[in-house]
């Protein structure tokens, strides 16, 4: 009797050690991050989702929030690549933009409570990982509040790299899997910078854990000199500014940095913005969202003009949705009680941005030489990082052309244009603004498929 009781106790003890070990293990963390269901989501979506925090700096207490949306079980997620998606700003949330209005599986309804499916979600083709980067953006946080005022490119890249290393420990099934990085706008810095870190730290390692294959950026801040030349030209050729302001911009912003412009350049930009009036610069032929509550005057709103399939005020719905306590609970987000509310962009992180190199082109050169797959795309109705800016930047790389500028085909119509260079593919999406997958979801899906399959845009 006694011994039976003892062995039972012993068994329970063993079991609890086992359970304890399991919960403390990376796999246990992964299980804990599994999302059962998001409030308001459609039933039986057929794919798995995970979200949670990965600590990237113990001393300061910085943790990055991620959301993984796997490919549907019916589409063999284990055979599909992993793609990390980043939005820019700097200071904007990949959860609020990329996941909720661009490439993610769900869109948020105007009630800010319920979700509906995005038929062109990129997780149909790959396992898509969103991270809010850097700390201080979206649900990512730092326990050292002064960090928010000193964020810059370098720390962002280092933290994102640390995130990846730790994340792959939690998700060992993704080790050695084909891996890509993609992003938009100021992620035109984050993506190549993170790509370079991964590439350099993989060097000399056979069969690396982070099996990095390439990157893709859209309407990407690339090279401040060429970006400025191309942006001012776009404003002028699209009739958005006067001749005199065009002349003034070209002189005042000649050697400028886009993150830290000179006083003269700022003054010229101020005049240009007044001349542009109340347009949506991110999508010049559509009306801005009428959001009086927004601090940013018409900076991030959209309105259907050309494509009627999207809602101009979508980021407001994200503000409602992600501030709901039950949504945060379901996402395992904000577990430490972040002392401010969720915002699609952090004004503090964005305004106090520190280091921002003038050009990403040396990194392009290095990674092109390394033979990585590199695609650059541009929605051609964006006046913030316009197609002309991207073309000047890419042209200055002086890459040999393999296939010259040609219209690509979307359902018998021109979807945009493409040029294939040795080491880089350039694609434009016609009629799309800054957030290409928001404005032109089907065209963006074709682009993503072509990128993954390493095929030229369909002719
Ligand atoms: C931040 O502080 C909270 C509260 O002390 C703590 O629970 C959390 O683990 C800290 N975060 C990091 C990343 O160290
Ligand atoms: C903006 O709001 C005003 C007042 O609510 C309304 O009259 C106007 O039609 C709105 N404009 C757009 C573009 O939504
Ligand atoms: C985090 O939760 C607290 C309540 O505990 C809330 O006041 C705050 O707005 C939330 N912040 C974010 C970024 O979700």
From TrEMBL:
<dbReference type="GO" id="GO:0005773">
    <property type="term" value="C:vacuole"/>
</dbReference>
<keyword id="KW-0121">Carboxypeptidase</keyword>
<keyword id="KW-0325">Glycoprotein</keyword>
<keyword id="KW-0645">Protease</keyword>
<dbReference type="InterPro" id="IPR001563">
    <property type="entry name" value="Peptidase_S10"/>
</dbReference>
<dbReference type="GO" id="GO:0006508">
    <property type="term" value="P:proteolysis"/>
</dbReference>
<keyword id="KW-1015">Disulfide bond</keyword>
<dbReference type="GO" id="GO:0005576">
    <property type="term" value="C:extracellular region"/>
</dbReference>
<dbReference type="InterPro" id="IPR029058">
    <property type="entry name" value="AB_hydrolase_fold"/>
</dbReference>
<keyword id="KW-0378">Hydrolase</keyword>
<comment type="function">
    <text>Probable carboxypeptidase.</text>
</comment>
<dbReference type="GO" id="GO:0004185">
    <property type="term" value="F:serine-type carboxypeptidase activity"/>
</dbReference>
<comment type="similarity">
    <text>Belongs to the peptidase S10 family.</text>
</comment>
<keyword id="KW-0964">Secreted</keyword>
<dbReference type="InterPro" id="IPR018202">
    <property type="entry name" value="Ser_caboxypep_ser_AS"/>
</dbReference>
<dbReference type="Pfam" id="PF00450">
    <property type="entry name" value="Peptidase_S10"/>
</dbReference>
<feature type="signal peptide">
    <location>
        <begin position="1"/>
        <end position="24"/>
    </location>
</feature>
<protein>
    <recommendedName>
        <fullName>Carboxypeptidase</fullName>
        <ecNumber>3.4.16.-</ecNumber>
    </recommendedName>
</protein>
<keyword id="KW-0732">Signal</keyword>
<dbReference type="InterPro" id="IPR033124">
    <property type="entry name" value="Ser_caboxypep_his_AS"/>
</dbReference>
């Amino acid at each position: 009797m006694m011994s039976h009781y003892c062995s039972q106790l012993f068994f329970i003890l063993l079991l609890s050690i086992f359970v304890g070990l399991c919960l403390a293990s990376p796999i246990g963390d992964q299980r804990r991050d599994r999302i059962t269901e998001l409030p308001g989501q459609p039933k039986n979506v057929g794919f798995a989702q995970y979200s949670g925090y990965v600590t990237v700096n113990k001393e300061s207490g910085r943790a990055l929030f991620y959301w993984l949306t796997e490919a549907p079980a019916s589409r063999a997620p284990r055979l599909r690549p992993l793609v990390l998606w980043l939005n820019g700003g700097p200071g904007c949330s990949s959860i609020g933009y990329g996941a909720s209005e661009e490439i993610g599986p769900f869109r948020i309804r105007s009630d800010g409570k319920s979700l509906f499916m995005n038929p062109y979600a990129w997780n149909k083709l790959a396992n898509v990982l969103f991270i809010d980067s850097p700390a201080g953006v979206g649900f990512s946080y730092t326990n050292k509040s002064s960090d928010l005022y000193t964020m810059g490119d370098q720390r962002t890249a280092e933290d994102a790299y640390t995130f990846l290393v730790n994340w792959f420990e939690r998700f060992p099934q993704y080790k050695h899997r084909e891996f890509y990085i993609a992003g938009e706008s100021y992620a035109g810095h984050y993506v190549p910078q993170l790509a370079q870190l991964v590439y350099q730290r993989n060097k000399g390692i056979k069969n690396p854990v982070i099996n990095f294959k390439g990157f893709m950026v859209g309407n990407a801040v690339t090279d401040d000199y060429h970006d400025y030349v191309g942006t001012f030209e776009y404003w002028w050729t699209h009739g958005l500014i006067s001749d005199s302001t065009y002349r003034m911009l070209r002189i005042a912003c000649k050697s400028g940095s886009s993150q830290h412009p000179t006083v003269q350049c700022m003054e010229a930009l101020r005049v240009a913005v007044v001349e542009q009036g109340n347009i949506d610069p991110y999508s010049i032929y559509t009306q801005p969202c009428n959001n009086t509550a927004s601090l940013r005057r018409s900076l991030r709103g959209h309105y259907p003009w050309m494509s009627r399939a999207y809602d101009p005020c979508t980021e407001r719905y994200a503000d409602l949705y992600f501030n709901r306590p039950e949504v945060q609970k379901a996402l395992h987000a904000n577990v430490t009680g972040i002392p401010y509310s969720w915002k699609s962009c952090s004004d503090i992180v964005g305004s106090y941005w520190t280091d921002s190199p003038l050009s990403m082109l040396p990194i392009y050169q290095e990674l092109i030489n390394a033979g990585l797959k590199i695609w650059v795309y541009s929605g051609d109705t964006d006046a913030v990082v316009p197609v002309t800016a991207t073309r000047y930047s890419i042209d200055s790389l002086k890459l040999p052309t393999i296939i010259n500028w040609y219209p690509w085909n979307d359902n018998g119509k021109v979807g945009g244009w493409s040029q294939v260079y040795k080491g880089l593919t350039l694609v434009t999406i016609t009629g799309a603004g800054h957030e290409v997958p928001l404005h032109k979801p089907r065209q963006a899906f074709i682009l993503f498929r072509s990128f993954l399959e390493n095929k030229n845009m369909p002719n």
